[in-house]
Amino acid sequence: MIEKKILRWSSVVILGVMIATFIFLHYYPMIQMSYSVVEDLEDESSPGTKQLANSKAPETVVENREELQGKLKMELPDDVAGPAVTVENHYLEQTVYVKFPTTCADYFSEYSLQGSSDTISSIGYYTEDGVGVMAIQMSRLYEVEHQFEKGSVYLTFVDPHDIYDKVIVVDAGHGTGAKGGATMAGVDEAELNLAIVLQLKKLLDASDLNIGVYYTRLNEWDVSLQDRARLANAAHADLFISVHNNAYQSDHWSYINGTSVLYSQSDNAEHNSKRFAELCLNHLLKELGSNRRGLVEGDSKYIIRTAECPVALVEIGYMTNRDEFNKLVTPEYQKKAARAIYNAMVQAFEEGF
């Protein structure tokens, strides 16, 4: 009799364990989905302004001239004509490079700089293969206009908001060789992210809206988290969108699928990150017909918590779901995702962002 009771209770315990195990295995991935965004391996080093090698404080080398506010007059060697000078604006670095042919080893001791230094954080000069390079690091992101006149090049630093009605920064998450991105069936997440951003770029290029767009990357190169966030902040962006794809245990296929969007829960502004993320999610679900994974608090992510504007990090779909993966790799699906993001930004601007 006692043996029968022990056997009966043993059966009940075993059955209970089996049921609990099934529930755990079935629902745990869904509970965890909000946190399965691929780790961004954050570097907590200071996100402050980078310093150029051998740079000088601008006030020590720029002669202040009131009539040149917001401008810089750079004297050129006598044998250098205007067409031989190139001016490159590297937005990601917030640095302008002025290049001209010369053998001058020390520009600052032989030539003059005049104008305003309040838009400049540092100035460096070096030579490379017979080319003099003046590296001018700006205090924030500016568009730079230039013209030549009487042996000098004049640089004018223009706030993008004085040119465009709105300014946005678009980030293709990760980069080739970067840690943290998922890989499935030989496809890197960085490739998919970039493919969607390039489709978005086509829409923005063709848009009649007067929007200034700055991209963290348009090729396979990786970009640090600090540079991504710094670009958005330096541009005083109205919106910051980061494009990603999700994964659950990226070494095998999973039934987990769907779309989610991360936002900054610490953004309490009237036009805030959560509302922008909600617009992105709604438009993505409408265009893609994907499963709703919802909005996810994202301040644990570096680029979200350090962004000084409304930010949304979209997780288009799960690369580890075979059906969703097969959609994500097609140009048609990538175009739909891009159109959804574009429409979300347009609606955000219509709402006053």
Automatic annotation (TrEMBL):
- Domain called MurNAc-LAA: residue spans: 229-346
Q: Name one Pfam family in it.
A: Amidase_3
Database matches in CDD domains = MurNAc-LAA
Name the Gene Ontology biological process terms.
peptidoglycan catabolic process
Per its record, how is this protein called by name?
Answer: N-acetylmuramoyl-L-alanine amidase
- Membrane spanning residue stretches: 7-28
Q: Which UniProt keywords apply?
A: Hydrolase, Membrane, Transmembrane, Transmembrane helix
Q: Name one GO molecular function term.
A: N-acetylmuramoyl-L-alanine amidase activity
Listed under GO cellular component are: outer membrane-bounded periplasmic space
Q: What superkingdom heads the lineage?
A: Bacteria
